[in-house]
Every structure is written in structure tokens, then in C-alpha cells.
From TrEMBL:
Subunit-level organization: Homodimer.
Native source species: Neisseria montereyensis
Pathway linked to the protein: Amino-acid degradation; L-kynurenine degradation; L-alanine and anthranilate from L-kynurenine: step 1/1; Cofactor biosynthesis; NAD(+) biosynthesis; quinolinate from L-kynurenine: step 2/3
Pfam families xrefs: KYNU_C
Stated name of the protein: Kynureninase
Amino acid sequence: MDRIFETSLDFAKKKDQEDSVAKYRDRFFLQPGIIYMDGNSLGLSSKDGEETLKIVNEKWKKYGVTIWNIEDGKYFLYQDFLGAKMAKLIGALPEEVTIMGSTTMNLHSAIATFYHPTKEKYKIIVDDLNFPTDRYAIDSQVKLHGLDVEQAVKVVPSPDGKLIDEDAMIEAMTDDVAMIILPTVLYRSAQIVDMKKITKAAHEKGIIVGWDLCHAIGAIEMDFSDIQPDFAVWCNYKYLNGGPGAIAGFYINKKHFKMEPGLAGWHGNKKETQFQLKQKFEHNTNNAGGWQTGTQPLLSMAPLEGSLSIFEEVGMPTLRKKSLDITAYLMFLADEKLAKYGFSVGNPREDAKRGGHVCLEHEEAYRICSALKEKNVIPDFREPNVIRLAPIALYTSYEDVYKLVEILEEIGANKLYEKFDNTRAMVV
């Protein structure tokens, strides 16, 4: 899409006045004087989420253990209630999505369910750029089967250290491959991987397909009714603003509902017999809730109810349109004002190929991030040279982006990063 931008502050203010999403900024706890550009790592707290958290806490105070029975069992089945709302974000059926665990544990659950290696078909395809927790889970599951990771995990290398080569992934789908697990949006380069292309090719070879949506859900539009993957996992604390370490999400295609979960627990039991407390597991085959394990943490889930209500109001098409425009604006300003100081844009520029954040590259990226924080800008850094900047559609203004670039221009021109060292902090 052709977009026409200008480099003036007046232009940024004009864009904000025309922005139909701008009114939702007031629904988030924005801190005065802070330019927050790290919503792809931890989304801001929403006022709606605070309210739903208060509501659940008040009900706990009033009802105690009987909270599970009130409002037609809403909180006993809270994972179904929230799962149905979240399913809209990925174009899935309500029953195909549940809320549980963490991204890593949900990936363990999915692999344990679907990975049944044989002598002929035992390899799992991965990329070499994905967030490492996925690889840790995959490797450990392979070891549990007594297999050698070097033999069973088929790593398809990136050709440039930034992007996944989809054709190379498909070429790697030999007869000995049982499963492929990839990110939908790469956390460093913001590349969107073509899920439909990969999934279709894998299914033609009888390969199970799983997707990590951590940097995709709430940032880009997806249609699982069309793509039809086997499973997906994701966190809810980035674009979905569920809170630090919020409970995660899990999708399983309805065609697999009758499969036995690889990691079973009593909340995956049939609801009709769950409290009969039988010693034999009776799998709930009605929905993705059959992969639940322990009792759901209501206070971790409650902020999601409020945040998801905002997504329902705005709609993903509107959010994606704003996200593409404001990230394009940031890239434009980077090209116009920052390139002369050694900055470059490292993410794909095409709308269809980039997620919700911009990867600004610089050889002094780590120290520049330290300088930004001193100037009350919150970015994050990813090895080896990436400053990740996420103008979140719901609460970032065009003026925020303009001011961010002004600050980066000052840092670059005066080399303000030189006062900081390269010693990595525990959390970056």
C-alpha cells in the first residue's frame, strides 16, 4: 500500500486527530512522560482488565469456594468463556481454543499428544531463529522418547540470520518427518511466516503442524478456519495485555478432540464426571478444554476478560490497519532521520510480511537502548544488534513515534550511548 508521510510534528498530530483508534488510549494506564514501545514484550495494563480483576476478586471474597457455581458456572468454565472470545482473533471455532498454562507448558502438552515417533517417521522440523523456549521444549520431548536430539530435530537454517525460508522448510519435509513447529511472527525480525503454505505442504506429507503465535495474536489477522493447523500455542501478556506472566492460550483443531492428551489432568476430564473423582481419566472430547490439567487461576485470567472486550469493540481489521500504518510511519522517519547515524530497518517492509513491531538495527543497539531508557523511552533489545520498537495500535500515538525518533536522532547525533557500557542486564 502506498502511504504518504511527512517529517513534521504537525503531521503526526494531524494523524492522531484522524485516528479512529486513538480514543482507546484512555482505556490503558499510560504513564506521564513515558514513551512505551515494548508492548510486544509486555502489554500495558488496561482499565477494563483492572475492572474485571476487581470483579473476580470481589466474587471470591463474597462467595469463597462457591464461586465455581455462580452465574451458571461461569468461573468453573472461565477457560471456555475466554477461549470463545479469543477464538475470534485467530478465526477458530470457539470450542477449539482454551486458556491454560504457559506457552512452554502448552507446547509440551501438544508435543506429548501428537509426537509418536516410529523408526520410519520421527523427526521434528524447526527453524534456527525461533524464541529458544520452543526449542528447549522440543528437545526435551525428543529426549523423553530416548532419541538423539541431533538426529531427531531437523534444524532448517535461515539463509541470512533474519528470515525463515518457507521453500526450504517445505523442501525439508522428507518422509521421516513427523512434525513441524514454527513461529508465525519471528520475535526479532517481525517476519510473518506463511502459515497456509507451510500447513498445506506439511499435511500433504502426513506431517503434524504446530504454530507459536506469541508475536502474532492480537497483532495480525489470522484465519484458522482456512489454514487448519493441528495445534497452536501462545502467551497472552504481549499484544493482549493479560498481565505479567499471564495465563497462556492453546488451540487444537476439532478433528483431534478425541485424541488422548499427552499430559492429562483432572480439569481435562469430562465435566459430568469430574467431581466423581474416579481413578481412571475420562477425557473431555467436546472441546480444547480436554487438554486442561489443573485448576484454572482465576486472578491470572480475569484481566484478559477486560482486555478482550476492547479487542471485540475495535476488531482486528481496524487494529491491523492502524498497526501497519503506524509502523510504516516509524520506518519512514527512521529512513529520513536516522539512517545517517548508522540505523537501519531490519524487518520486512511489505505489509503482508511484517508483524506488529519494527526492528531497528545498529551496531551499538544495546547501549542505545540504555540511552533511550534514560530518556524515558521503553524499548527492548535483542541480540545481536536489534532495537525492537512496537507502536501498539491501541495505545501508541503518532506523536509518540515522532518524539521517539527525535530522541533517537539526538542519541545518534551526539553519541549519547557512549556513556553506557555493554554489560548485559538480567532482563533486557
